[in-house]
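Key result, reporting period 2: structure in, sequence out.
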């Protein structure tokens, strides 16, 4: 878990976002997939909207990548809702691409489609 803090005057800071990640587990798998060895997975990455467009998300993602590389991961994955162009655009701007995997989450008896994006951690 990484936290984003917006600094204020007199040394006070405000928690404005977070990123949670770890080794890819069953939640990172696409339907019918058996494993993702050497892969890290973003479980959540969120910056409170009123603190957006200040680089917090990019710094959180860059810090995640640094930790994943240090831990020996070669690839990372993240699920994004198909109807969330902001998240997809954000990840694409950092070099992430759809890998073809799709799934649907059951949210209050409504299936919400997602697609998975991936990024190489080389270099």
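The corresponding designed sequence is given below.
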């Amino acid at each position: 878990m990484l936290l984003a803090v917006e600094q204020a005057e007199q040394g006070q800071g405000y928690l404005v976002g977070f990123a949670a990640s770890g080794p890819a587990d069953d939640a990172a798998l696409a339907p019918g997939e058996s494993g993702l060895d050497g892969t890290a997975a973003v479980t959540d990455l969120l910056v409170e909207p009123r603190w957006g467009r200040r680089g917090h998300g990019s710094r959180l993602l860059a810090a995640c990548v640094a930790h994943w590389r240090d831990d020996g991961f070669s690839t990372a994955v993240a699920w994004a809702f198909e109807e969330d162009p902001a998240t997809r655009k954000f990840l694409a701007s950092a070099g992430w691409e759809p890998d073809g995997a799709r799934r649907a989450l059951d949210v209050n008896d409504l299936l919400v489609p997602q697609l998975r994006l991936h990024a190489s951690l080389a270099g």
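Strands lie at 2-7, 13-23, 39-47, 75-81, 97-107, 110-120. The mean pLDDT is 95. This case is discussed further under Risks and Mitigation.
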